[in-house]
């Protein structure tokens, strides 16, 4: 392997240390950041994710509030729970764990969250601020990608960045984040209808893969020395976690590369804490 590895675990650990320090300083002023996770039903994966978020909160001195609702809860009761958390001064950040059962409206649930507590960054107010170039809360995964690039000194101003994926959760907010004034990348967003994907990725200084297609970025699609960020996570037939990048081959061409697991994933977890810290700090400052 010739590329330098971007160690997401190490960067995330450093971010958590910094966040823990800031949480301790806030606590001296009587404010303990609190994150509430609304969990509907018994989906085992969702329970694991919420459990991890609660553990992450505890590790940096934040409190977490579990809001568990039965799978057959109606929309009005879900809204009432979100309203209760919106009004609770101990709660600075609220997430609604997705997916919700089919009879519930996920977008309406996201829109119900107070924008000041929207630590997942999915409320239209947060997305609008990002579109304006003055982000409040940015979804944790794109924020984590940006921090990884910055911490590794990757020059973004004027750089060609190609993002494969245009979801509301990852591709689109990342494009907004990196193309805004002050960051100044030239961003191309690709998707399933893009003609000749390799044509785009080959001219990129930075390629971000967020398509959820195992090992689709091959070595011939990468310019020598480019930075490759792999957001994708899928499981192969043996149950092993794989990314969207054909890692072994691409690592012979790229200059910097993230592994899966251990790249973007840990950063996503750390950036939810960062957003919760920002929400609590803003609340403390009134
Ligand atoms: P979505 O399924 O919402 O979006 C996938 C995007 O990739 C779409 O825009 C789609 O295009 C595009 N796409 C799919 N196939 C191709 C293809 N063959 N060529 C070009 N573009 C393609 O996924 P998410 O954005 O939510 O997640 C993407 C991946 O990142 C998943 O593997 C997910 O598990 C992972 N993920 C990882 C996180 C982490 O912390 N590491 C956090 C969040 C997600 P179109 O719009 O045309 O359909």
Structure description:
- The structure is a single chain.
- With 286 residues, the chain is of the alpha/beta class.
- The protein folds into two domains: 30-115, 3-Layer(aba) Sandwich (Rossmann fold); 140-265, Rossmann fold (3-Layer(aba) Sandwich), CATH 3.40.50.720.
- The chain is 41% helix and 15% strand.
- It is built from ten helices and eleven strands.
- It has helices at residues 8-28, 44-59, 75-87, 106-112, 124-132, 140-151, 171-179, 197-201, 247-250, 264-284; strands at 4-5, 34-40, 63-69, 93-96, 160-164, 186-190, 206-209, 227-230, 234-235, 241-242, 256-257.
- The chain has a six-stranded parallel beta sheet with strand order 1-11-8-7-5-6. A three-stranded parallel beta sheet has the order 3-2-4, with helices on both faces. The protein has a two-stranded antiparallel sheet with strand order 9-10.
- Helix 1 (8-28) runs parallel beside helix 10, helix 2 crosses helix 10 (264-284) and helix 6 (140-151) crosses helix 10 (264-284).
- It is globular, with a radius of gyration of 19 Å.
- The termini are far apart.
- The protein binds NADPH dihydro-nicotinamide-adenine-dinucleotide phosphate (NDP).
